[in-house]
Write a structure and sequence with these properties.
heterotrimer; B: 270 residues; mainly alpha; 14 helices; 0% strand; C: 293 residues; MetI-like fold; 12 helices; globular
């Protein structure tokens, strides 16, 4: 089963929210959709789920065109940022509702929900209302509901952004165990690039409704196709030198080092981050960020250099990689 | 002036006239005419007896009003619930315009519609039928009901319905499992406001109903006022006032929360 | 699909709100009375011409405006006081709020009958009071100078709770730190009222004002039962006059003309009141904390 998206687009009035979207997700593959807020990540997900109408292009799931099939018939499992659990129903009843309307026999329902609750380690919380659960537990109930649907594709819409940083890290392996091992296509929307890099096989970067690049996390980091991606992926942000002849040269902060010859700089401020430190420098080429290990001593005369092979070149007008 | 005095004044202002009616209803006619003279028989139940034994008896009007109130409320909610839901799912400008029109209709002094509605009743032969009154009542409370329920729908997170759609719930099932339970507080507020309106409505009931056994309470009260030929019939008036007020006083005491939230949620969001 | 959910409500609204307005507009250019055998016959602008020359109509219009203006004005002032009282925290506040709401919930005709007894001469409590106070019997409902005051009184009593509740809801949306900030700058209670409460309350005042103004312009139940329009038509309202024309004189054409004129007037009054309020109360401060003394 594979998910193929071809030239997908949706407009509201004159405004295109998403356009010319092409994406191919294999079974068992997780593709993360990242991009700044308002770039069309969630809209793309809603198009695939069938919650919004497709204006142009096709969504093909398992060789079947589902572009105009209703949401109920698409066999899509979706996890929402807000969990979307019904507040007046118990955990069990929340999970049961979908099975009930899909005509599963009561004894079957009981058994399947029980098994699912064990899988997400919530077997003792079946009769509790969602409000009495912690954020992480609610998240797992929402996940269990999507899993019970036994869908052909999983869509995760910022499933962890309402959780605190530590819990997010703890839940990542669980997400991998529960969803990614099901051998179905998974699309994971997030604004957190660390999460995307940690979970996804490939990352698609969206910018104003278009996909700019789809690549593995390493490719995206080392060979960003546009200046936007170079700036968006990698923290601290990439340094852009003064444009020359319509070409912008960019160097990652971690590629900079102190040397005998190079760019003379002035130290503006310094951030200590535990294992690494971040220096804000002022140079004739503009302000620079330099990231290095805390063990590195900062020399008196600040002269910064980098290897030619670490330079990225972008066209000043189009922002494309040269 | 301290707060205690102010609260006392407020209560005297609000409840004084009502308490005076209670006092009057228990006074004999003699005591009413000469309040400062001592009488052998100051207190009496005769006014209540005469009101309750009149033809038709007073409880008849209460029952009529109850029938009209319940049927109007039911009809109103039946129409307003789907409309309030649909109002969020039409193009945004159209929905904003509709809401504005509904606010206008809710402000409109409906009294002025009596003539056209009377013609309607004549044309459709709806006069002198209690249940037919619920048609104009449901319609007149429609603007407020749709606005209040629409606010409630707006407050629900949209993902709840999205998730339900993905689970395969039909529109009817979504109403059954999600909307009806989750907006029930707003529905209760709306229902009680519509009921109060229908119970209290006067000009339309006055023009639609003439059969004395089918009068609603407000019309019956006005008719008592207009027809009396006794010199001092106020004891009986007061008894009728008290009897006519009791159900509503109870209603306000029991349902004050949904009433207040219904009245104010319209204001806060409108 | 969506349209089927809207259709029933829309249809009912059209029949009850929109069709009547067209019907009135149409009827106002027709003679439709006992004389024509209750058949509508076009008569050009005769109804409207008659309206212009109808002294009783103009008298009623003046009385209705006086009634609406005075009672809505008193109501809003009183409602603001009650709302300010109920906005503070004290024991038993919720009970008092509920009890204060009772007048609003009672049917107008029921309490109008009650007021008739209270204003009764010579047996009502007001009459006793004026006699004891040495003013003598005033014959309130029988005296053109006092009867309209009695109608205003009864209306204010009945509708103030509604306005108070709306304003109370508005007061509860005003964050307390605004007052604290102004107090720190040395503002007293009056400055707080003028600089914070009234500006932030403006949308709620507007809502209560427009709603009450429109409703009291159409006052009918109260006057019909309390005074019947008397004495000598001095408390008669436009709605009551339209009602008499339709149901007593059976002149549907002229009654429609009165109603149509009222509709136009109400719309006008609401627009004027809306603009007036913008002028009267300054715009509320856009950002928190930026309030000049």
């Amino acid at each position: 089963m594979t998910l193929q998206i071809q030239n997908l687009g949706r407009h509201v009035g004159q405004q295109w929210i998403v356009r010319h979207l092409n994406l191919h997700v294999e079974d068992g593959e997780c593709v993360a959709l990242v991009g700044p807020s308002g770039c069309g990540k969630s809209s793309t997900l809603r198009l695939i789920a069938g919650l919004d109408p497709v204006s142009e292009g096709e969504i093909i799931l398992n060789q079947k065109n589902i572009s105009h099939v209703s949401a109920a018939q698409r066999a899509v499992g979706m996890v929402f940022q807000s969990y979307a659990l019904l507040p007046h129903l118990s955990v069990f009843a929340n999970l049961e509702l979908g099975l009930r309307v899909r005509g599963v026999r009561p004894s079957d329902r009981q058994q399947r929900i029980q098994a699912m609750l064990e899988l997400v380690q919530l077997q003792d919380r079946a009769d509790v209302l969602p409000a009495q659960l912690s954020g992480g537990q609610r998240q797992r109930v929402a996940l269990a509901r999507a899993l019970l649907r036994d869908p052909d594709v999983y869509l995760l819409d910022e499933p962890m952004s309402n959780l605190d940083a530590q819990l997010r890290e703890e839940l990542r392996p669980e997400l991998r165990r529960l969803v990614l091992d099901r051998q179905k296509p998974v699309i994971h929307v997030t604004h957190d690039q660390h999460e995307a890099m940690a979970i996804a096989d490939r990352i698609a970067v969206l910018h104003s409704g278009r996909i700019q690049q789809v690549a593995t996390p390493t490719e995206l980091y080392h060979l960003p196709e546009t200046l936007f991606i170079a700036k968006f992926i990698g923290r601290p942000q990439i340094n852009c030198l003064r444009p020359k002849d319509g070409v912008i040269t960019a160097v990652r902060p971690e590629s900079l080092f102190f040397a005998k010859e190079g760019l003379p700089c002035k130290l503006m401020s310094r951030e200590w981050l535990g294992s690494s430190q971040l220096l804000y420098l002022e140079s004739p080429e503009g302000s620079l960020r330099l990231s290095c290990s805390t063990s590195v001593d900062i020399p008196e005369s600040l002269i910064v250099s980098w290897h030619r092979s670490d330079e990225h070149y972008f066209d000043e007008d189009s922002g494309r990689r040269l | 002036m301290n707060r205690r005095t102010l609260v006392g004044l407020l209560l005297l202002w609000s409840l004084g006239p009502l308490l005076w009616q209670v006092y009057t209803s228990f006074c004999s006619d003699q005591a009413l005419i000469q309040p400062f003279v001592s009488h052998d028989q100051r207190w009496t139940l005769i006014h209540y007896q005469s009101v309750l034994n009149a033809n038709p008896p007073f409880w008849r009007y209460l029952v009529n009003s109850l029938i009209v109130g319940i049927s109007s409320t039911f009809l109103c909610l039946l129409l307003a619930l789907p409309a309030a839901y649909a109002l969020n799912r039409i193009p945004r400008q159209l929905s904003a315009l509709s809401r504005l029109a509904l606010v206008g209709a809710a402000l409109f002094p409906y009294v002025l519609l009596f003539l056209a509605l009377l013609e309607l009743a004549r044309a459709l032969n709806l006069g002198n039928q209690l249940l037919a009154l619920s048609l104009p009542y449901a319609a007149l409370s429609q603007p407020l009901a749709i606005l209040l329920l629409n606010n409630a729908f707006n407050d629900l997170p949209p993902e709840l319905e999205d998730a339900a759609k993905l689970e395969g719930l039909s529109l009817f099932q979504r109403f059954r499992w999600i909307f009806i339970p989750l907006i029930s507080p707003a529905t209760a507020s709306t229902a009680i406001l519509v009921f109060l309106f229908s119970w209290n409505e006067y000009p339309i009931a006055l023009t639609w109903i003439s059969d004395s056994s089918k009068l609603t309470l407000p019309v019956a009260m006005a008719r008592i006022a207009g027809s009396s030929i006794y010199s001092v019939p106020y004891g009986a008036y007061a008894a009728a006032t008290v009897l006519g007020s009791i159900p509503l006083v109870l209603l306000v005491l029991i349902f004050q929360k949904p009433i207040v939230s219904g009245l104010t949620s319209g204001a806060v969001k409108g | 699909m969506i349209i089927f959910l809207l259709l029933p409500a829309l249809l009912l609204l059209l029949v009850v709100f929109v069709v009547p307005l067209f019907r009135y507009a149409w009827l106002s250019f027709h003679a439709d009375s006992v004389i024509t055998g209750l058949i509508a016959i076009p008569n050009g602008g005769a109804n409207w011409l008659r309206l212009l020359q109808d002294l009783r109509y103009w008298q009623d219009l003046g009385q209705t405006l006086r009634f609406a203006g005075v009672s809505v004005g008193l109501e809003l002032i009183l409602a603001l006081c009650i709302a300010l009282l109920l906005d503070q925290r004290w024991r038993g506040r919720d009970v008092v709020r509920t009890l204060a709401l009772i007048p609003w919930a009672l049917p107008t005709t029921v309490m109008a009958l009650g007021w008739r007894w209270i204003f009764n001469t010579p047996y009502g409590p007001i009459d006793h009071f004026t006699k004891i106070a040495g003013i003598g019997s005033l014959n309130i409902l029988g005296d053109p100078n006092f009867a309209w005051i009695a109608t205003v009184w009864a209306d204010v009593w009945k509708t103030t709770p509604f306005a108070a509740l709306i304003l109370l809801a508005g007061l509860q949306t005003i964050p307390a730190d605004l007052y604290e900030a102004l107090r720190l700058e040395g503002g007293n209670a009056l400055i707080c009222l003028r600089r914070i409460t009234l500006p932030l309350l403006r949308p709620y005042i507007l809502l209560a004002l427009l709603f009450r103004l429109a409703q009291s312009f159409g006052v009918f139940d109260l006057i019909q039962v309390l005074t019947g329009g008397g004495p000598a038509s001095t408390t008669e309202s436009i709605a009551l006059y339209a009602y008499w024309n339709a149901l007593r004189f059976l002149d549907f054409g002229y009654s429609s003309t009165i109603i149509m004129a009222s509709f136009v007037l109400i719309s006008l009054i609401c627009v004027i009141a809306w603009i007036g309020l913008q002028v009267l109360i300054p715009t509320h401060p856009k950002s928190r904390g930026v309030i000049e003394l």
